[in-house]
């Protein structure tokens, strides 16, 4: 049985990924910030075909709880075929007006949490890769096009996502020989509630659909262990390709 841990699974891209993997009969560990978000999600994923579902409420800004999340997955499943690091927070503002407290939280959630989870999960990912000599194991981190190309007003958000891209590149250098491959998926604005703040100037029907990002993640999880893609930028049609 393939297994995956998906963070931020109660909405948006994380929910789409969890549903797709449930339909493929993965064993799943899913997170959200509150237990209330997870009750209905657990039932839904079971109904879609998930072999087993572990629900774990966790605030990604609280890094000290994240090893226990991975430990819960290990206790139930023993190994991890895929780690999908999706949970994130947005931060907007010009550099001269940035709130340093918000900067710290942005890096805690968008980068530090990913680093802690990857570090904790690597033994489980190596174990899964050792069992699957064709497919290996995968890490998929949801980054942003702003982590690749600068965007006015999104310096901190983009910097946190650029750090995530760099982390993924280094993980590949260190772990691909063990059959663990990582990819940063870096989309422009995706039609989720996280993008609602720009809906007055970027209509939802011009944003990237959640299902398209889910399809990219699904494709990555189906690659063989000898195929390594460090990052994928998904730009919005009708733009320069270098902007959110």
In a few lines, what is going on in this structure?
With 244 residues, this protein is of the alpha/beta class. It is 43% helix and 16% strand. It has helices at residues 12-23, 35-48, 66-77, 100-131, 155-175, 210-222, and strands at residues 3-6, 27-32, 52-57, 82-85, 137-142, 180-187, 231-234.
What key attributes describe this structure?
globular, 7 strands, 7-stranded parallel sheet, Rossmann fold, alpha/beta
Describe this structure in words.
This protein has helices at 12-23, 35-48, 66-77, 100-131, 155-175, 210-222; strands at 3-6, 27-32, 52-57, 82-85, 137-142, 180-187, 231-234. With 244 residues, it is α/β, with parallel strands linked by helices. The chain has one domain (3-234): Rossmann fold, CATH 3.40.50.720. The longest helix is centred in the middle third of the chain and has 32 residues, at 100-131.
